[in-house]
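subagent[fold] <- orchestrator: predict structure for attached chain, return tokens only, no commentary.
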Amino acid sequence: MVYGDLQFFDIIIFAVIAVFIIYRLRSVLGKRTGFQKNLDQQRFVKKETEQHKPKIPQLNENEQKFETIYKQVGVFDHKIFLEGAKKAFEIIITAFNKGDKNTLKNLVSKDVYNTFVSAIDTGANNPDAQFYSLVVDGIEDARVKNGKITIAVNFISEQILNNNEDEVIKNKDTWVFEKPENSKEPQWTLVQT
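subagent[fold] -> orchestrator:
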């Protein structure tokens, strides 16, 4: 009988331990009564509102106009845009100076292309000019209208003439770039100089 009493005593000890564990779990986890809000719905609503809230990064004082783009366009990165605009400026001016009409045709609108071609044909370009420096001086305008993103950028550029650093020409230009709002392509088109 002693052996049977030990088994009964073991069962009672395990039952007490199980009750204690269930009690502790219930106090930590709580109990569901059916009146709680659905947590999945709360997460979905929270996630949905976070997606609609535009994420505007820290902008420099001369870049504040980008806020308009960030508020209206889902995917936009002003740093990538500015790097691309600087590269485009340098490529377009170099192509213009060298009279490279094919390169210009792919980067600018038809009106701007015609203006550049007319200037090249009259000899207004200078094949001996080379870039010395280029700085983005600020954003003149940035907007989304009629399904197009339009950004006007102020550039300050310096070019050297005839490989002579004493002959530096400094220019301030405002160029307007444009692309369709829903375009996934990184390329922008120069529509105005």
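orchestrator: received. Logging for downstream: Residues 155 and 173 are 5 Å apart (CA to CA). Strands lie at 129-145, 148-161, 164-180, 189-192.
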